[in-house]
Each structure stands twice: as structure tokens, then as C-alpha cells.
């Protein structure tokens, strides 16, 4: 009997090695891209420590866990399949967020499958902590910029310092400040949330105090960052812009960040002491492990389990091969559509202002000033066109900027209807000197017009999975804001021409 259990354990250890090698080999491409982001972006430098910390937390519980009582949990299989599919979609569509979310969620799910429900429940936080390795959070930067500007303006109003706000530009008599991406505090927020979760797990016992401290770790850095911006404005006002501008205000920011972390840990210590007074004994501080579901299948079922896992792995490998085949088929670059835009008297560049889109690695771009054909009024328009054939660069990417963020800030956003039944996005941009322009834009992929970049991206993925051309174009236009009706008519003409260019190629 002892020999049977030993053989069973040996098989399970072997399966664990197989699962780890599968995860490492399967997610290698996404793992490499994630590590590059960790290294390049200071926002995600902390991600290098997430997996090692998780392993250390598991190691700390080595004496509390009955490792010999592990058993496979088939409850994890549906989630594994979904995560694998998400990863394949991310690879096919070159959506890094899908890749990273899938691969770092797949690792703890595979561990759950391997260890079983009971042991996984005992290791729930170390496994959950692995999710912080996902380089996610930059999407909140515009929101955090707005929140920081709003709160800092309120604080400055308490001092009586005269301040004029224009979008993200904050102007005082001595000079002007821009709440840029670096001032959004996203680095502070992400680091604070990671630290808040880790501290609450290691030092707090009650569920309600843990939840309170995690919520505090979210709100505290947002408010603190607004205070930092407020302090920079006050120092600039008091020193006649000799201090707290340029590089030194970034140095102040890092010192302030260290101070915020120390304050957060200090508050955590107060919460821990308060909690200790409320707990009658160390025994009651233990969170009851309820709701455990355990599968105790060993011995003869091990062979059947490994056979089932082999089938699952075979299906996944076939899926990878199929995806690679589709990728290879879709590498054939389609012929460029002929963009015969109804524009005359074209002059290269923007002759109406300094609106400057920034699209990376486009196959073909146009940025010109001209007159629309067929419009009675001679109204100049500025248009920007970026075409991506799918061989290099992404049509829809966070790196592509519709406007130069150092000069312009977003003042409004809405959808506008066109006479043809289509619609377009319209954004209002405001510069530091108070001037405004309206920019209308849309995407065209495979003869379909999109205003939602998420739907457009998913449609590209769908085309790529079918082996069809998934090239597309981004088009933006600004005109005379005093005659918006004519501008929208001109925009509709351009949309019709672009859709027709893709349809004629079919």
C-alpha cells in the first residue's frame, strides 16, 4: 500500500513539472513582452518582485499545508480552457493586455488544478498576488489626470491664489502648469495598491480591516498626489517659478512618494494595533477556512487523470498549431487600397494650427491641408490618414495619439451622426492659451466603419483568425468650427470614399 501511494505521488510530482513546463513554453512570447514592459516602464518595475514574493509566501506556509493530501481539481479545467483561449486571441490580435492577463492568471489556475481545492484555499492570497504581475493600469492615466486637476484646483482655491484652468493646464500669474501623464500619480497608485494588499495579508487578521486597508491604499495615494500638485503650484507661486518647476519637481515627487508610503505603513500599524485590541486571543484571529471542497483521488485514478490531462494538452497544442497556421496565412500583405479622397488644392502639413497626431509604425500616412470637392463654400480642412497593412505596427494601440498631449488637453468628447447613416467621434481640444479646435475621427477596416476602438480591434482579431486581410485606416479631420454642418458633410464624403476604397479591392 505504501508503494502504491509513493508511485502515485511520483506521478503527481511529474505532472506538476509537466504543467510548469507547459505554462512556460506556452506563454513564452507573452512572458517576454511582459518582462520588456516591466523593464522599460517605471510604472511596472515592481512586477519583477511579484512572482518571487508569491513563492516566498507559499514557502512560509510550507509547514501548515499537508502537501501529501494534494489531489487534482477538475473545477479548474473550464477556467484553464478560457484562459488559454484568451491568450490565443491575444497572440492572434497582438493584444498584449489579453496575453498578460491570461498568462499570469493561468499560472495560479494550473497550481489550483495540480494541488486541489483544499490546499489552494490555504494558499489563496499568494496565488492571487501573482495577478499583480500583469502590467495593467496605464489605462487609468487620463482619469487620474482629471481627478488630480480637479482636487488640486479645489485646494488652490482655499489659499486665495488666483488660478485659471483650461483642461489640464493650470495657470497662475507667475506661470502655467500642465497635469501631464507623469503627474497623474499612476505609479504611486499601483505601488500603493500592491503594498496595501501585501501588508493587509501579512499583518491584519480580520476581513473587514483588510478590506478597509486595501481601499485606503487606493484612495490615499490619489488624494496625496493631488496634495503634491497643490504643493508644487504653491511653491511656484511663492518662489516666482524659481522652484518646483522642471526636473526638481520630479525629485520632490519621489521624496513625496516615499513619504506617502511611510504614512500608509504608519496608518497600517495603527489599524493593526486597533485590531489587536479587538481580538480576544490569537486563536480568534484566525480566519476560519470554510467552504472547502476536496477531491481525494489517488492510486488507480492517477493514470486516468494523466491520460485526461494529455488529451487536454493535445487539444491545446493543436490550437496553437492552428493559430500559427492562420498567422502565417495572414502574413500575405494585401494590396493597398487606393484612397481617392475628394480633396483638392492639397498642401502638405497642418496649415490651420498645431494639432499633431502621433501614430507609430504606420505603413502609409497623410497629414495635409486642403479643400473638399463639391462643397460650395471654400472651407479649408486639415486631415490625417494612417494606414496599417498588418505587417508592422498596430492600427489600434495605446501608443497612437490623436493629438499632441504636451500642447493640447481633452475638453470634451461626443459622437456625431453623418448623412450616410454612419457616425464619427468628435473631440474638443483646448490649448494652454485657451484656443479650441474640434477633431472628428473614425476607423475603417475591411469596408466597415468603426467609432469604438475596442470593437474595431476585436473585428481585426476575427479577420486574422479567419486568415483574411485585417488592414485598416484611421482618419481624422478638423475644419472651421463656426460651420460645423459643412465640416460634417465633408467628413461624410471622406468616410464614403474610404469605405469604397476597401470594397473595390474585394
Low-confidence stretches: 1-6, 282-307, 320-332
Number of strands: 11
Rounded to the nearest angstrom, the distance between the terminal CA atoms is 69 Å
- Pairing-aware structural class of the strands and helices? alpha+beta
Average pLDDT number: 79
Radius of gyration: 28 Å
Number of domains: 3
Helical element count? 14
Task: Spell the H/E element sequence.
Answer: HHHHHHHHEEEHHHHEEEEEEEHEH
The major β-sheet equals:
8 strands, antiparallel
Using brief descriptors, characterize the structure shown.
506 residues; alpha+beta; eight-stranded antiparallel sheet; three-stranded antiparallel sheet
Architecture overview:
This protein is an alpha+beta fold and 506 residues long. The protein folds into three domains: 2-136 and 301-329, no CATH class; 139-278, no CATH class; 343-505. It has helices spanning 2-26, 28-40, 50-60, 77-93, 96-115, 117-122, 124-129, 141-159, 186-203, 207-238, 247-278, 301-329, 453-465, 484-505; strands at 164-166, 169-172, 175-178, 343-348, 364-372, 380-388, 408-417, 423-431, 436-445, 448-450, 472-478. α1 packs parallel to α12 (301-329) and α8 (141-159) packs across α10 (207-238). It is flat. The N and C termini lie far apart (69 Å). Mean pLDDT is 79; it is low at 1-6, 282-307 and 320-332.
Amino acid at each position: 500500500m505504501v508503494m502504491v501511494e509513493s508511485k502515485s505521488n511520483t506521478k503527481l510530482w511529474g505532472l506538476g513539472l509537466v504543467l510548469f513546463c507547459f505554462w512556460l513554453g506556452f506563454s513564452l512570447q507573452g512572458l517576454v513582452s511582459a518582462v520588456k514592459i516591466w523593464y522599460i516602464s517605471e510604472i511596472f518595475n515592481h512586477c519583477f518582485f511579484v512572482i518571487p514574493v508569491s513563492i516566498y509566501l507559499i514557502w512560509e506556509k510550507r509547514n501548515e499545508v499537508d502537501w501529501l493530501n494534494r489531489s487534482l481539481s477538475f473545477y479548474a479545467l473550464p477556467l484553464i480552457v478560457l484562459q488559454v483561449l484568451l491568450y490565443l486571441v491575444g497572440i492572434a490580435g497582438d493584444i498584449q493586455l489579453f496575453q498578460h492577463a491570461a498568462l499570469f492568471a493561468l499560472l495560479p489556475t494550473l497550481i489550483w488544478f495540480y494541488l486541489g481545492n483544499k490546499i489552494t484555499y490555504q494558499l489563496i492570497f499568494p496565488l492571487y498576488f501573482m495577478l499583480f504581475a500583469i502590467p495593467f493600469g496605464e489605462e487609468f492615466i487620463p482619469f487620474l489626470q482629471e481627478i488630480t486637476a480637479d482636487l488640486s484646483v479645489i485646494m488652490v482655491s482655499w489659499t486665495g491664489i488666483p488660478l485659471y484652468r483650461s483642461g489640464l493646464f493650470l495657470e497662475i500669474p507667475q506661470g502655467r502648469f500642465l497635469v501631464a501623464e507623469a503627474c497623474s500619480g499612476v505609479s504611486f497608485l499601483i505601488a500603493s495598491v500592491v503594498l496595501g494588499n501585501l501588508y493587509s495579508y501579512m499583518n491584519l487578521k480580520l476581513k473587514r480591516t483588510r478590506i478597509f486597508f486595501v481601499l485606503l491604499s487606493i484612495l490615499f495615494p490619489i488624494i496625496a498626489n493631488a496634495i503634491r500638485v497643490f504643493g508644487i503650484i504653491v511653491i511656484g507661486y511663492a518662489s516666482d517659478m524659481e522652484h518646483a518647476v522642471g526636473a526638481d519637481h520630479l525629485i520632490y515627487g519621489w521624496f513625496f512618494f516615499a513619504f506617502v508610503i511611510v504614512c500608509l505603513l504608519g496608518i497600517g500599524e495603527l489599524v493593526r494595533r486597533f485590531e489587536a485590541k479587538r481580538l480576544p486571543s490569537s486563536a480568534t484571529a484566525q480566519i476560519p477556512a470554510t467552504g472547502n471542497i476536496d477531491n481525494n483521488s489517488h492510486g488507480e485514478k492517477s493514470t486516468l487523470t494523466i491520460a485526461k490531462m494529455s488529451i487536454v494538452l493535445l487539444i491545446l497544442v493543436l490550437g496553437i498549431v492552428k493559430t500559427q497556421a492562420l498567422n502565417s496565412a495572414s502574413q500575405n500583405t494585401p494590396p493597398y487600397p487606393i484612397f481617392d479622397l475628394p480633396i483638392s488644392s492639397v498642401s502638405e502639413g497642418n496649415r490651420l494650427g498645431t494639432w499633431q497626431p502621433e501614430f507609430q509604425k504606420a505603413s502609409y500616412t497623410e497629414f495635409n491641408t486642403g479643400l473638399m470637392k463639391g462643397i460650395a463654400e471654400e472651407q479649408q480642412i486639415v486631415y490625417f490618414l494612417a494606414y496599417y497593412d498588418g505587417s508592422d505596427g498596430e492600427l489600434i494601440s495605446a501608443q497612437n495619439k490623436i493629438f499632441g498631449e504636451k500642447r493640447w488637453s481633452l475638453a470634451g468628447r461626443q459622437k456625431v451622426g453623418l448623412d450616410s447613416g454612419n457616425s464619427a467621434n468628435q473631440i474638443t481640444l483646448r490649448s494652454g492659451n485657451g484656443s479650441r479646435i474640434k477633431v472628428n475621427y473614425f476607423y475603417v477596416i475591411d469596408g466597415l466603419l468603426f467609432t469604438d476602438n475596442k470593437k474595431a480591434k476585436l473585428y481585426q482579431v476575427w479577420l486574422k483568425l479567419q486568415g483574411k486581410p485585417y488592414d485598416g485606416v484611421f482618419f481624422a479631420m478638423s475644419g472651421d468650427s463656426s460651420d460645423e454642418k459643412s465640416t460634417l458633410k465633408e467628413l461624410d464624403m471622406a468616410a464614403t470614399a474610404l469605405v469604397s476604397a476597401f470594397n473595390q479591392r474585394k
